[in-house]
Amino acid sequence: MKVCIDPGHGGEDSGAVGVSNGYFESHGVLDIGLRLRELLLPHMEVMMTRDTDEFVSLSQRCKVANNDPAGVDVFVSIHLNSADTDASGWEVFTSGSTKSRELANDIGYRQAECFPLQKNRGVKQEGFYVLRNTKMPAVLWEGCFLSNYEESKWVTEDDTRQAMAVSICLGVLDYFNITTANQQTTLEERVAKIERHLGL
Asked: pLDDT by residue for the chain (200 residues), tens digit each?
């Protein structure tokens, strides 16, 4: 089994910018992606479209996954959202194929479990470039809105980004029918710590 992690944006392309603090989407998603890699490595092979703060074109991201000689089983693109309104919450996008939707549902379930107080915007079908041009089941995850004042502060917390990585990891493991009691305990502990920090 092999997963390709795709941290969005990078280099001169910062992506969205936190309304409360100027936090770059490109920095946040790279950190989440690197954390996710470490969580997945004990269970499967992992490759990344970028592992430093560099710009990688959309076509090159797809080529990295599609042209891997050993074959990539799933592609997970990581993003933080932005909107003109005070939108909040998480959502997972899929190209619409059955396997992609299954992966998106598994990740979405774990996201909702990890962040029960965050708005659940659900799983949606969308024609994003990396979803249309990858050969394997692919999803695009949006963890929160940097255009939302509270979420743009919240995602700068190390524990938040670690819990996001854990939720994606558990969703991927669910997709491959891999169970690990230790990671569930870690998730519960981290959610409790985040809730204490936020005074929930």
From this structure: 999 999 999 999 999 999 999 999 999 999 999 999 999 999 999 999 999 999 999 999 999 999 998 899 999 999 999 999 889 999 999 988 999 999 999 999 999 999 999 999 999 999 999 999 999 999 999 999 999 999 999 999 999 999 999 999 999 999 999 987 655 545 566 566 555 545 44
What's the rounded Cα separation, in Å, for the pair 186 and 81?
26
Can you list the domains of the chain with their CATH numbers? Answer: 2-198 (3.40.630.40)
Q: Tell me the CB-side half-sphere exposure of residue 8, using CA atoms within 13 A.
A: 21
